[in-house]
Recover the amino acids of this structure.
């Protein structure tokens, strides 16, 4: 089987995978990083969003081998010890999650937005979240969380 | 998904040789359509040849027209100040594809090679009279799109870039399916040196096509009112649970009017 090597949350990792192994399967099943979720498995819901070399991507629609050599960041790589990332903290402060299933993807997607558009308007935030579905329909507080985090991230 | 041999091509020439050598190989650009297709087992290639590491396939250059490397992502086109300056309609089209994560990985070459009947880029290529450049030749958009998921590409041919001439006026407007956000009807209107061209995606039974009745009406009078009473035939349009052929026909004229109004 092919071997894949990448950096995940700052640590070099490698493993043997089938060519058809998805990145999200490698992260969850082999690295046991189960914070990245599989919701729809059809690139629509965004629960599986991670960062590949700083860009948000759906890890259910990427082969593990496509991430060979890349720097991958998952939800587990955001907090600094006990200190949450400002986006995580803002989701906590604003009740930005209900069941929590979509939250890892929401947080990873939102960080990419704030990096690219630190002063995103409410409309721009809602448009950006097109690829992230919250089946609790808790979008209002998710948007509030992202607005607060953008301020705290220096936007 | 069935398993396959995964290969990384270091160059376009590598990809072409790998395709020739494979029993039933396919190239992968961003994988935004290919991977869902493989997951559903709608395709089972023996080899998937990844173009991500192939040199010289990404980038945008503007001199007269706009040339976009095949592996350039939708996000790169949408965010390019060069494209926004020379062909803002094209940047706007790219910004409207999928969602941010799909735009971060999906590419123009992949979109065009796949020729999904609801894809956005084929409409831009056809309306603007783009030239599709491959490892071995240049193909006019008029000769490139050959029906549902079919193109003029040979089995072992790889797109390297797409060149768009600029236009006096150009605009793309789509009516997205409320759930999937794919174009139920998308209309690209361009007023070019070669005349007015109107390309329609999302609606045709055989994929993207030019709406000649609308082109004729707009050629003599480039205004939305010139399209009053100009009907597009429902023959050859798709009918599905989302919209009947008649409704799509109606939407084509309506979207074309909105497009012309937007640039008038």
């Amino acid at each position: 089987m092919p071997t894949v090597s990448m950096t995940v949350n700052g640590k070099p990792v490698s493993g043997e995978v089938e060519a058809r192994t998805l990145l999200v399967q490698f992260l969850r099943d082999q690295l046991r990083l189960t914070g990245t979720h599989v919701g729809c498995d059809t690139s629509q819901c965004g629960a599986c969003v991670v960062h590949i070399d700083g860009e948000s991507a759906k890890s259910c629609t990427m082969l593990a081998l496509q991430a060979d050599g890349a720097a991958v960041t998952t939800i587990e790589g955001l907090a600094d010890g006990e200190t949450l990332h400002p986006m995580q903290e803002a989701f906590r402060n604003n009740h930005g999650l209900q069941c929590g299933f979509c939250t890892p993807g929401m947080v990873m997607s939102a960080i990419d937005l704030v990096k690219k558009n630190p002063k995103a308007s409410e409309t721009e935030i809602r448009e950006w979240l097109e690829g992230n579905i919250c089946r609790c329909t808790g979008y209002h507080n998710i948007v509030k969380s992202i607005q607060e985090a953008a301020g705290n991230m220096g936007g | 998904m069935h398993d396959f041999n995964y290969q990384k091509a270091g160059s376009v020439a590598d990809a072409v040789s790998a395709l020739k050598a494979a029993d039933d190989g396919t190239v992968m650009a961003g994988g935004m359509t290919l991977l869902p297709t493989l997951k559903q087992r709608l395709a089972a290639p023996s080899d998937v040849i990844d173009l991500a590491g192939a040199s010289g396939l990404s980038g945008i250059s503007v001199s007269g027209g706009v040339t976009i490397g095949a592996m350039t992502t939708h996000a790169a086109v949408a965010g390019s100040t060069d494209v926004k300056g020379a062909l803002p309609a094209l940047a706007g089209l790219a910004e409207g594809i999928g969602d941010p994560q799909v735009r971060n990985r999906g590419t123009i070459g992949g979109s065009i090679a796949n020729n999904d009947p609801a894809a956005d880029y084929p409409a831009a290529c056809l309306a603007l009279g783009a030239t599709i450049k491959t490892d071995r030749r240049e193909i006019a958009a008029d000769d490139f799109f050959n029906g549902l998921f079919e193109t003029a590409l040979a089995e072992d041919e790889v797109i390297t870039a797409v060149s768009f001439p600029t236009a006096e006026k150009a605009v793309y407007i789509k009516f997205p399916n409320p759930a999937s956000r794919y174009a139920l009807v998308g209309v690209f209107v361009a007023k070019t040196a070669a005349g007015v061209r109107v390309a329609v995606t999302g609606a045709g039974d055989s994929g993207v096509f030019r709406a000649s009745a609308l082109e004729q009406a707009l050629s003599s009078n480039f205004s939305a009112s010139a399209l009053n009473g100009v009907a597009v035939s429902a023959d050859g349009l798709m009918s599905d649970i989302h919209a009947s052929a008649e409704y799509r026909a109606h939407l084509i004229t309506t979207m074309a009017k909105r497009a012309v109004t937007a640039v008038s």
In short: Chain A touches chain B through 27 residues (CB under 8 Å).
